[in-house]
Amino acid sequence: MPISDEVCFFESIGRKDLAVFGGKNASLGEMVQTLAEVGIAVPPGFATTADAYRRFLAENALDQVISETLAALETNKTTLKAAGEKIRTAIVAGDWPKETEGAIREAYRILSERAQHDNVAVAVRSSATAEDLPNASFAGQQETFLNIAGEDALLTACKKCYASLFTDRAITYRKLMGFDHQMVALSVGVQQMVRSDLGGSGVMFSIDTETGFDKVVLINAAWGLGENVVQGAVTPDEIQVFKPFLDRQGLRPIIEKKLGAKEIKMIYASGEGPRQVRNVPTSKAERARFVLSDDEALQLAHQAIVIEKHYGVPMDMEWAKDGETGKLFIVQARPETVESQRKSGTFKRYDIESHGATLVSGLAVGEQVASGPVCLIETPDEMDRFIDGAVLVTSATDPDWLPLMKRASAIVTDHGGRTSHAAIVSRELGVPALVGCGNATELLHDQQEITVSCAEGDVGYVYEGRSEVSVEEIDLTEVPATRTKVMLNLANPATAARWWRLPADGVGLARMEFVVANTVRVHPEALLHFDELRDEAVRAEINTLTRGYEVKADYFVDSLSLGLARIAAVAHPHPMILRMSDFKTNEYADLLGGAQFEPEEDNPMIGWRGASRYYDPAYEDGFRLECRAVRKLREVIGFDNVMVMIPFCRTPEEADRVLDVMQQEGLQRGAKGLQIYVMCEIPANVILAEEFAKRFDGFSIGSNDLTQLTLGVDRDSDKLAPLFDERNPAVEWMIRTVVQKAHDAGAKVSLCGQAPSNYPSFARVLVDAGIDSISVVPDSFLQVKKHVAASESK
User: Fold this and answer.
1) Which of 20, 78, 102, 527 has its CA 20 to 30 Å from the CA of residue 676?
2) What whole-number distance in Å separates Cα of residue 31 and Cα of residue 704?
3) Please, are residues 447 and 421 in contact by the beta-carbon 8 Å criterion?
4) Nearest alpha-carbon partner for 449 in 396, 518, 524, 389
5) What is the mean pLDDT of residues 185-210?
């Protein structure tokens, strides 16, 4: 509803009006107009036009002030700080044109009547005509004023929005992005406040911000009003949802949940005065629980998909939960500006070949590695002592830090999440950043030489000294097609999404034990028999990890299923072959609480491992937890592309006992499409291949152990290293024989050992043998793919 030529309610605005109302307000109007009927709730409000801004400048003779001041800045006759302050002061001192003031007052009264509240509290947001474009977000460049109530306070806040077009950071950002300062106008959005001060709020992307993986929604959440998440003042909760399963009845496709510290929350300020909001510490209870329930996270993810589909591009959204009603609102939506613009044909891979001691870790932003001296700065006022190319270390970055961010080789902060403004801008600048480190400003010091690595997955590291780094550009534009499937060996959920662009045929080996060791961290028997634990320090650490779980064993099932889900998501819709836990007893003993439940063996390599554990009373209940995690992965989260593989299965009778336990846990071969493979890593698996084929759908050759046990060579022995060779004729005979026997019995065969990764030419032996698929580490994928294509052509 238009109030005048200069003020319109959101329902009269659409994205076609970007030049009039700016990206932010045009987008809000678009959602109110078109998406309300499909469940997207946007708080009501109105916006002023860009012409209202221009008229305000003209009637207060501000155009000349702005032009002359910026010209002086360009010729170094004034400083950035002085120029910005002069322009802002002049704008705030200006008088409203009567027609504009009257229209804003009238619109505010109507909004208050609709809300059935005198002087309804509103958020006053800036919407520049050059922001929220596909190639530049302008995120956080202008100011937002929260909990504004009363006509006079609103008019003052609107002028402050105009003035914020000339903050130091906004001037710098426009110059960096190549925008003419005086060609950019500003619309003010006035939006009814959501009582998220009593609930929570955050940021949401319809794409993975670090890898561009387009099948997930990334949600960050913190208590209170949303500015703390946007500005990076808190470390928020992080949730990922797998988009393809959201419309499938009965599934709950959450594939990651990380509890954030959520150190503070922004609430309404009480009493009179200029401050309408304030930050307060969160309680221990608030820090220990998630802001969003699973149902709420799924609801938000569904809204992200609806919004993305409507706009036709990946989106960056802000949301808020009303603490009084529990209702979820979308308060902003704009195009994602980094990963969606990235060329899909090539990507760079950074490898750290050697590095010093680990000093600090945090959330990785970007996938690069950078080295330089530390420059520890507490406020932007100290920017004069910053050295170009240094690593900026500070408590938190916000838009005021932009002039420093673009000069830094890397950024390290104590606070913040992956969707904070600082993270968004560092991606746009191509500067690697570690956020949410917690104590970087305490552990790092000025002039200290460090390396910042964001190339190792979700977690990034600060290493002492300058590391040796290699950079490889991987070209995906000329990958040959092959009949033999080439799959990936993946173990680490944190790095799996890095490889989603590789045109692989799935994941041929996902190692459960890696997820147990790095994500779960606790021995399953220590959870099942927690009251029997003798080590008090271990008990305390397990209590911390399992907080919120009444039944500690549920922690194992949930953590393991979520970790595996992130790998399955990269494979989907292709298969993922999941190997059940294949720790040796000494490795199990290294898990929290594990030493109490594991025997000491002289030769764990051929000891109590694999299938022999799964039906043994000493571990069977632990294996049942593994089975429950797999069942949740397949039937609750939805990854029915997951196949299960049994390692180190010595006899067909042992296989029967394992399959019986699995069936009791709802994992029955053939039911709900479940396929079960067996590892072929013992000569007995080859000799009795016909019998194993009666019990399993396929074989996956573990060339490491098969070579070791065929040749009688300890693969870890330095003295015997020259004898350990998967290309030995005896090993080749084993491979050819099991392929033939398996195919004769109607079973498939894959190879998931290191041989083709170490010796890509070994692929010819496998192709000649007629193997169905080869699984390799991602680094070797393209080379092996080419060798397979060449072998097939011969």
Assistant:
1) 527
2) 56
3) no
4) 389
5) 95
Dihedral Cα 82, 85, 89, 91, nearest 10 deg: 110
Nearest to 327 by CA among 199, 183, 429: 199
pTM here is 0.88
Q: Which of 355, 437, 752, 787 is catalytic?
A: 752
Mean model confidence pLDDT for the chain: 91
Question: Spelled out in words, what is the top-level CATH class assigned to the domain 200-340?
Answer: alpha beta
Instruction: Give how far the C-alpha of residue 148 lies from the chain's centroid of Cα atoms, to the nearest Å.
Output: 34
Handedness of CA 655, 657, 663, 667 (dihedral sign): negative
Question: Exposed, middle or buried: residue 75 (CB in 10 Å: 0-12, 13-18, 19+)?
Answer: exposed
* pLDDT at site 133: 43
Reported as a single tens digit per residue, the pLDDT across 398-413 is: 767 777 888 899 999 9
Distance of alpha carbon 702 from alpha carbon 724, whole angstroms = 14
Cα–Cα distance, 784 to 500 (Å, whole number): 17
DSSP collapsed to 3 states, 573-616: CCCEEEECCCCCHHHHHCCECHHHCCCCCCCHHHCCCCHHHHCC
Task: List the CATH code of the domain at 344-473.
Answer: 3.50.30.10
Domain borders along the chain are 7-192, 200-340, 344-473, 478-793
Question: Which residue of the set 421, 523, 572, 787 is catalytic?
Answer: 421
Using CA atoms of 586, 591, 597, 601 in order, give the dihedral in degrees to the nearest 10.
0
Q: What is the pLDDT of residues 26-41, one digit of tens each?
A: 999 999 999 999 999 9
Active site residue 752: yes
- pLDDT range class, residue 545, cuts 50, 70, 90: very high
**Strand residues in 629-779 grouped as ranges (E):** 642-646, 676-680, 698-701, 748-751, 773-776
- Tell me which of 3.30.1490.20, 1.10.510.10, 3.40.50.450, 3.40.50.300 is the CATH number of domain 7-192: 3.30.1490.20
* HSE-up (13 A, CA, CB side) for residue 268: 17
Structure tokens at 388: 């170009």
Average pLDDT over every residue of 530-558: 95
Give the model's pLDDT for residue 344: 63
DSSP 780: G
Give residue 730's pLDDT. 96
The 10s digit of each residue's pLDDT in 612-638 is: 999 999 999 999 999 999 999 999 999
C-alpha 350, offset from chain centre: 19
User: Which residues contact residue 441 at a Cβ distance below 8 angstroms, ignoring those fewer than 6 apart?
Assistant: 376, 378, 393, 394, 395, 414
Which of 217, 298, 207 shows the shortest CA–CA distance to 250? 298
Q: Mean pLDDT across the stretch 748-755?
A: 87
Residue 491's alpha-carbon distances to 305, 367, 561, 728, in angstroms, are 29, 18, 13, 28
CA distance 32 to 41: 8
Most confidently predicted of 467-481, 580-594, 761-775: 580-594
Highest mean pLDDT among 1-5, 168-172, 382-386: 382-386
In CATH terms, are 7-192 and 200-340 the same topology? no
Within 13 Å of residue 67, how many CA atoms lie on the same side as its CB? 7
The torsion angles phi and psi of 780, rounded to 5 degrees, stand at -95, -5
The CATH class given to the 478-793 domain equals alpha beta
Candidates 685, 740, 743; CA nearest to 709 is 685
134 preceded by a cis bond (ω within 30 of 0): no
310 included as an active-site residue: no
Query: For the packed helices 168-177 and 80-92, what is the interaxial angle rounded to 10 degrees?
Result: 110
DSSP string, 439-479: SHHHH--TT-EEEEE--SSSEEEEEESPPEEEEEEEE-TTP
The token pair that represents 746 in the structure block: 């109607």
Order across the sheet with 237-242: list the strands. Answer: 254-258, 237-242, 216-223, 200-205, 315-321, 328-335
Residues 6+ away with beta carbon under 8 Å from 785 = 479, 480, 482, 486
Closest by Cα among 304, 314, 317 to 339 = 314
Q: Is the pLDDT of residue 135 over 50?
A: no
